[in-house]
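Q: What residues go here?
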């Protein structure tokens, strides 16, 4: 395998080679680090990179294998961690100058699990400031560039992870998703990303945004996400929301005949605007499920009448939660924060506890409506995002309405399933005429993460994407 081929190879192929001593973890790590050195900072996917520590870990894993010792299921696999996740050996700066140099002395639990599984942590990937927006830019790191076209948005707060996966910075990348931040960069960068059921992967520190943030894998193949999610998942006492049940055997049960599955398809969730080229590619992707023998039904407006509540709910909660989390920074940091974040913080001022609880009651009813809707279907398919990549120095595409902080208008398909806690994934389904990736979203009832992975794996077999590499 050439060095570039090593960098793009999936973990599902690399792990057996490492465990059988046909591939050195050191050789793999060296190849990935050389590629990163060649492409950074042009892509700007990393905020912190520790190649020396990564090489030390790769050498340690190789030593274990040479001595015949047992190694973990991700032995020697390079992995990146998003800069919203707490790590002991790398700073956690959350895309903000106000947290520059911030250091912890402990890993968040899923990072510990990845390390124990033998993964080699390369560094921390870039994020928008505090993960607040769907555009790959922060005051701390500037623009993170889409590898398919320089200067274009790589999408949401897990943009660095999405770029790293698309650009061949090794096989495994961690993202988090509070309103689409795994699925949106997966869509923009042409990779696979799954937001598992809420609580599937423990989160620490536990978020104070009313149970919407999910951690999960972002990879070039579905099998790699299945392997990574298996390791990250499971209960943990630090997160009282973490699911008590252990994860399913995702990798071992990935292959499934989808014939007869009942699938709902909504091109717009009754209220979302979608660019025609994106909508057309998603509709073509839906046809693949029809060809596989699924019973696909385009749902009527009446079937999802409740979905029209979504925009008002997200605008209220997004602003109020940003206010609660970051208003205290304004006296000292206002002129150094993202201007859109400042506007969002100010938009959330002035609401009372009664206002919040009244909106939360509406949100709970909205969540219940989604769960009741999914009782009639095995899966739901929608666009992942309404638009393809646009210039990353903009908050909204030029041909869309402009707003000082509302980027959600072109991302109406993701946050509903953060509210409801359902598993959802963005699956590559084609490219625009300009050569920019597009994803379709697959959603399952809560707790059924396996069905999302199985549907994605079947689609991957029918419409392969991992062989396509951006020319950087």
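A:
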């Amino acid at each position: 395998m050439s060095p570039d081929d090593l960098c793009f190879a999936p973990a599902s192929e690399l792990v057996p080679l490492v465990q059988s001593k046909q591939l050195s973890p050191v050789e793999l790590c060296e190849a990935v680090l050389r590629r990163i050195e060649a492409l950074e900072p042009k892509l700007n996917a990393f905020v912190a990179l520790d190649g020396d520590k990564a090489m030390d870990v790769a050498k340690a894993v190789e030593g274990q294998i040479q001595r015949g010792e047992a190694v973990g299921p991700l032995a020697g696999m390079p992995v990146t961690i998003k800069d919203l996740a707490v790590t002991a050996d790398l700073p956690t700066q959350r895309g903000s100058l106000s947290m520059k140099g911030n250091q912890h002395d402990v890993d968040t639990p899923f990072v510990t699990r990845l390390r124990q599984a033998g993964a080699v942590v390369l560094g921390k990937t870039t994020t928008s400031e505090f993960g607040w927006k769907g555009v790959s830019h922060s005051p701390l790191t500037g623009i993170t560039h889409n590898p398919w076209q320089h200067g274009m948005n790589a999408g949401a707060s897990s943009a660095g992870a999405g770029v790293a996966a698309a650009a061949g910075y090794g096989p495994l990348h961690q993202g988090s998703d509070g309103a689409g931040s795994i699925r949106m960069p997966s869509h923009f960068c042409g990779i696979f990303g799954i937001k598992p059921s809420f609580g599937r992967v423990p989160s620490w520190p536990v978020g104070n945004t009313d149970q919407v943030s999910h951690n999960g894998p972002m990879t070039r193949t579905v099998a790699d996400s299945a392997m990574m999610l298996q390791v990250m998942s499971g209960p943990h006492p630090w997160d009282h929301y973490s699911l008590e049940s252990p994860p399913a055997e995702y990798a071992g049960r990935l292959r499934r005949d989808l014939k007869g599955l009942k699938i709902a398809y909504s091109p717009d969730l009754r209220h979302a605007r979608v660019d025609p080229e994106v909508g057309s590619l998603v509709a073509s992707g839906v046809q693949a499920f029809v060809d596989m023998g699924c019973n696909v039904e385009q749902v009527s407006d009446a079937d999802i009448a409740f979905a029209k509540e979504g925009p008002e709910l997200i605008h209220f909660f997004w602003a109020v939660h940003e206010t609660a989390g970051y208003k205290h920074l304004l006296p000292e940091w206002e002129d150094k924060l993202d201007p859109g974040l400042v506007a969002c913080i100010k938009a959330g001022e002035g609401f009372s506890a009664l206002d919040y609880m009244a909106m939360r009651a509406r949100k709970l009813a909205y969540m219940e409506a989604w769960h009741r809707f999914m009782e009639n279907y095995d899966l739901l398919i929608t666009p992942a995002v309404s638009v393809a990549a646009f210039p990353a120095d903009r908050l909204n595409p030029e041909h869309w309405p402009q707003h000082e902080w509302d980027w959600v208008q072109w991302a109406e398909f993701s946050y509903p399933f953060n509210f409801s806690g359902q598993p959802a994934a963005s699956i590559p389904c084609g490219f625009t005429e300009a050569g920019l990736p597009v994803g379709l979203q697959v959603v399952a009832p809560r707790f059924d993460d396996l069905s999302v992975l199985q549907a994605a794996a079947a689609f991957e077999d029918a419409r392969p994407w991992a062989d396509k590499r951006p020319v950087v």
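A: Context that may help when evaluating the design: Residues 3 and 31 are 5 Å apart (CA to CA). The chain has a mean pLDDT of 97.
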